[in-house]
Each structure stands twice: as C-alpha cells, then as structure tokens.
Amino acid sequence: MSTRHSITAAGQLTRFFLTLFIAILLVVNLLFIVNASNLIYRYADDQADEIIETIEKDWPSSANREKLLEAYVAR
User: Fold this and answer.
1) From first to last of its 75 residues, what are the pLDDT tens digits of the chain?
2) Pairwise CA distance, residues 40 & 31, whole Å
3) In this structure, are residues 58 and 36 in contact, taking their beta carbons and an 8 Å threshold?
4) DSSP 8-state assignment for residue 63
5) b/e code 20-43 from CB counts within 10 Å (16+ = b)
6) What is the pTM of this model?
7) What distance in Å separates the CA atoms of residue 18 and residue 24, rounded to the nearest whole number?
C-alpha cells in the first residue's frame, strides 16, 4: 500500500519561486565573477603598460631593458 501525496498549489508555487530565486542568484553571481575578472584583467594590463612606459621614458636607450624587466616584474 503506497500512499501518494498530491502536490498542492501552495507547494507548486513554493517550488517555482524557490527555483526562480536560485536561478536568479546563480546568474547574478556569474555576472559578478565575470565583471570582477574583467576589472582585474584590465587593472593588471594597465599596470603593465604603465611599467613599460616608465621604463621606456626613464631608462637610457643603451641599457639592456630585458634584464631590467625580468628583475622588475615577477615571473
């Protein structure tokens, strides 16, 4: 003898809103991760450009820039 519970309208609405809430939460978190990653990448790229511009402007042209870059920027 198996008892079968019927799903009420309140139960269906609760399940629907919970699923909708979780889906929206996942989308917002994914957008946050993508946006934060993009900002970090652009910041690092800007810093690298600034270092290269500073070295090109201030370092004598006869000096070896590759050795300076290797010493200045961690690999």
Assistant:
1) 556 777 899 999 999 999 999 999 999 999 999 999 999 999 999 988 888 888 777 776 666 767 766 766 665
2) 14
3) no
4) S
5) eeeeeeeeeeeeeeeeeeeeeeee
6) 0.60
7) 10
